[in-house]
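pasting AcrR family transcriptional regulator for the record, 185 residues
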Amino acid sequence: MAGMVEQADVLAAAETLFYERGVQQVGMDQVRAAAGVSLKRLYQLFPSKDQLVLDYLAARDERWLASVREHALRAGNVLAVFDWLAEWFAEPDFRGCAFVNSFGELGGTSAAVADVARRHKEAFRQLIRDLVGDDELGDQITLLAEGAITMAAIGGSVEPARQARRAAEALLTLLDRPHQHGGLQ
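structre below
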């Protein structure tokens, strides 16, 4: 049990540091210090920094997608994804998409990181497709969300979420589609 707590502590420390500073700017000693474990214990839990990065991204993927999905299902409306994005963008530690950031840093040299980033983006796209019940429309709305994430990170504003929400709403209205989720339960 203590090992699982330590592992969770290390992952939480790594996530904070990697997201805030970038994966390449953070050494294992910094993760060790932030997590409060010895370097020996850190390497027992995560044999390499590469493994720690992959585990950090996997944990973030699971948590991020579950939160978006829950928010949209609770609202019963795909447009709620953009409301969730606006809340995320307003967080003081918002630094954009961790998967895009990690891909930008490591995607050219780490096939594993590139694969994790691609799988995350595909899972998000599939979530939106399921919410609207249409693949093409889901892809278009996904592009609006992805663009909003990038613009919010660069511009430091929540406004891209609002703009993308209005564009998605206009698209749904133009195509005479209900805003409620399609077949996702």
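The domain at 1-47 is CATH 1.10.10 (Arc Repressor Mutant, subunit A).
Residues 109 and 173 are 43 Å apart (CA to CA).
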